Amino acid sequence: MTGLRGTGSFDWTLENVFLPERRSMPHTNTPLDNRWRRWPGVTYSLPVNCWIGPHYSAVITGIARAGIDALIELAGKKTPRGRTGLLRESPQVQDAIGRADAMLNAGRAYRSAMITELWTTVAAGNKTTTEQRARCSLAAIYARDNARQAMDLMYQHGGSTSFKSESRLAQCWRDLHVVAQTVTLSPEWYPHGGRVYLGMVPG
Predict the structure, then answer these.
(1) What are the CB-based long-range contacts (under 8 Å, 24+) for 191-198?
(2) Domain membership flag for residue 26
């Protein structure tokens, strides 16, 4: 694939290896919650919404942070063609880095707050509500959207360096966009949350 090269990701296959059922996890048509409850502790009592979405979302926000750091490093040593000053002296670059940091942190804060709310509810021995679970899913997608916008800003302001395959900005941009395409972070989850708030079945 075009992305995930920066992380060294690859595919692998095992053949003729026994896998106990207790070490397996179904991915379709079976509630993951039922499988997780066999282990003790708050972690395994959390609703699936704390895992499906937020786990990929955390990867994306981490990559976006690396992208911001990559542009900061580049801006301190690159003099764009036709200019005399370093890239960091550009007001547009300064603005982009400030905006990207704010966007990224807003998404991360929302996601952390929702996961913390669900954790606190479960740790107190209570059941989570549909609204809480919907907000957790929405927070994951919102963090993904913010990270994507932040990374796009960094890529844009990296200039011609951004499209070189060996560039850290290029690696971060490609990797982030691959993870952002996963179904668990699809924009289709926004209307699911909207239906919950409107008193409808989420679907």
Answers:
(1) 192/134, 192/137, 193/134, 193/135, 193/137, 193/138, 196/130, 196/131, 196/134, 197/131, 197/134
(2) no
CB 60 within 8 A of CB 143: yes
List of E strands, the chain = none
Residue 192 contacts residue 134 (beta carbons within 8 Å): yes
Closest C-alpha among 146, 147, 153, 140 to residue 175: 147
Q: Which domain holds residue 164?
A: 51-197
Question: Domain of 155: which CATH number?
Answer: 1.20.140.10
Q: Tokens standing for 82? A: 């036709």
CA dist 171 and 131 (Å) reads 37
Residue 116 forms part of a structural domain: yes
Q: State how many domains the chain has.
A: 1
The verdict on residue 29 lying in a domain is no
| pTM exceeds 0.90 | no
For the segment 39-84, what is each residue's pLDDT rounded down to a tens digit? 778 887 888 778 778 888 999 999 999 999 999 999 999 988 878 8
